[in-house]
Specification:
single chain, alpha/beta, 7-stranded mixed β-sheet
Length: 496
């Protein structure tokens, strides 16, 4: 049998076809537009997602026996607000995870409602990218749209709805809405009241590996597959990536170097850090996880290469980087503001330490190191909770760079295991579909049988020690710049 994993990303949907043994049969990617109506805003059209997904599935299964397709599931960009009217029409473009318009709403939730209440209700505090602040923004700025809302959904769940006719979500993705009681794995009535909505306006919540239904006849006909194909709820992209890299069970870690960057630590036990610097979410394997999320990771390198240097030859640019741990140039990777652990949408990227002998390679190296240092910030929070890690998996586009993997291993002083498949969310989605169809008894069994480590990058004691010294400098830069970020934003907004 075949299983389809759909990774609904920010710039494209990536689709993966996996067979019963966990072998990747085909991979297809389809891009769609991303809109920035105002500085700091980020939106997409849900119909673009669906059309790209349908085209992608048709191409993905073109050369296989379509009658053998058994299941479909997802990994998807988290936190995005998709709102439907009573006829299930999209009311307005989706407001995405990296949209920064909700500063006032986030401040209201954290300061007026209070972080303690939010944490008690949802195990998290408000971040600008979360869904609840977006709802409050629509309520305040677009009351006519707010009044039309019949269903509130997340990006991947819109695709599941179009395929099955079921309004659904899963526990891992719901955890990032600030509307979900993570500990008890159910919607928070208190948060719904705060946001002025009814629990009935939210989708039914499933475990990630549960089937929500089968394909609608018209969807099956369009795709050319049986209507008996099961659709599983799927997971938020980071939880799906964790499944795809085998980061399930207790005290396992995965680092994702995608558009955003994450450090993801799975746990059998529910837990929250005292400052809510890390997210405490439900995991796709039926347990929980802690996650630190930075808004710009591999996208920092893409910005530096494409927009500033003007090259697509990333590998050649990295070849001239030789002196690791000796760079005097630092980079704060906050191109879209920052989430973990600073929770500051006003933060901005900064280069520091340049001199007349600074080279192009030094600047490129600083970008790669800055992302690793920012991931280390979240790891330090996990350490404060008593979590001790020796190794981590890694995935995402940035994980294709041998140099970047070496930097990460030494900055974090962890062994970095490289899975055979670097596909992350799409692989995790296919594995969840296989579990939903009974191919595997559990997510953990699927991970044990499918995920294989093909390389381990070990930290080098001398280099790790040099990076430890460099990190001590790096962690002082953000506190020093923080007042300037706020002053700059205030001046920009006032027209000065």
């Amino acid at each position: 049998m075949f299983y389809i994993g759909i990774d609904l990303g920010t710039s494209a949907v990536k689709l993966l076809l996996m067979d019963s043994d966990g072998k990747i049969v085909n991979i297809v990617s389809k891009e769609y537009p991303l809109y920035f109506p105002q500085p700091g805003w980020s939106e997409q059209n849900p119909q673009d997602w669906y059309e790209a997904t349908v085209l992608g599935i048709k191409e993905l299964i073109r050369d296989v026996d379509k009658s053998q397709v058994a299941g479909i599931s997802f990994g998807g960009q988290m936190h995005g607000l998709v709102i439907l009217d009573e006829d299930d029409n999209v009311i307005r473009p989706a407001i995405l995870w990296n949209d920064g318009r909700t500063g006032a709403e986030t401040e209201y939730l954290n300061r007026v409602i209070g972080k303690e209440k939010l944490s008690a209700y949802t195990a998290n505090i408000a971040f600008a990218g979360f869904t609840a602040p977006k709802l409050l923004w629509v309520k305040d700025k677009e009351p006519e749209n707010f009044a039309k809302i019949a269903k509130i959904m997340l990006p991947k769940d819109y695709i599941a709805y179009k395929l099955t006719g079921v309004h659904c979500t899963d526990v891992s993705d719901a955890s990032g809405m600030l509307l979900f009681d993570v500990k008890n794995r159910q919607w928070s009535k208190e948060m719904c009241d705060i946001c002025g909505i009814q629990v009935s306006q939210l989708a039914k919540c499933y475990e990630s590996y549960e089937a929500v239904g089968t394909l609608l006849p018209q969807a099956a006909q369009e795709l050319g597959v049986p209507a008996s194909v099961k659709v599983a709820a799927g997971a938020g992209d980071n939880a799906a990536a964790a499944v795809g890299t085998g980061t399930v069970g207790d005290n396992m870690c995965n680092i994702s170097l995608g558009t955003s960057g994450t450090i993801f630590i799975s746990s059998k036990q529910f837990g929250v850090d005292s400052h809510n610097a890390l997210h405490s979410f439900a995991h796709a394997d039926g347990s929980y996880h802690l996650m630190g999320c930075m808004l710009s990771a591999a996208s920092c390198n893409k910005w530096w290469m494409d927009e500033i240097i003007g090259t697509k030859d990333y590998a050649t640019e990295q070849q001239s980087i030789q002196k690791l741990g000796e760079n005097h140039v630092y980079f704060l990777p906050y191109l879209m503001g920052e989430r973990s652990p600073h929770n500051n949408p006003d933060a901005r990227a900064v280069f520091l330490g340049m001199s007349m002998d600074t080279t192009r390679a030094d600047m490129t190296q600083a970008v790669l190191e800055g992302v690793a240092f920012a991931l280390r910030d979240s790891l330090e929070v996990a350490k404060s909770l008593g979590i001790r890690l020796e190794r981590t998996k890694i995935c995402g586009g940035g994980a294709r760079s041998p140099l970047w993997k070496k930097i990460v291993a030494n900055v974090l002083n962890l062994k970095v295991d490289v899975p055979e498949s670097e596909e992350g969310p799409s692989m995790g989605g296919a594995m969840l579909a296989a579990v939903a169809c009974g191919e595997y008894k559990s997510v953990e069994e699927a991970a044990e049988r499918i995920v294989k480590v093909v390389e381990t990058v070990e930290p080098e004691p001398e280099l790790a020690a040099r990076y430890e010294e460099r990190y001590q400098y790096f962690k002082e830069i953000y506190p020093a710049c923080k007042p300037l970020f706020h002053a700059w934003i205030a001046g920009r907004d006032s027209g000065n």
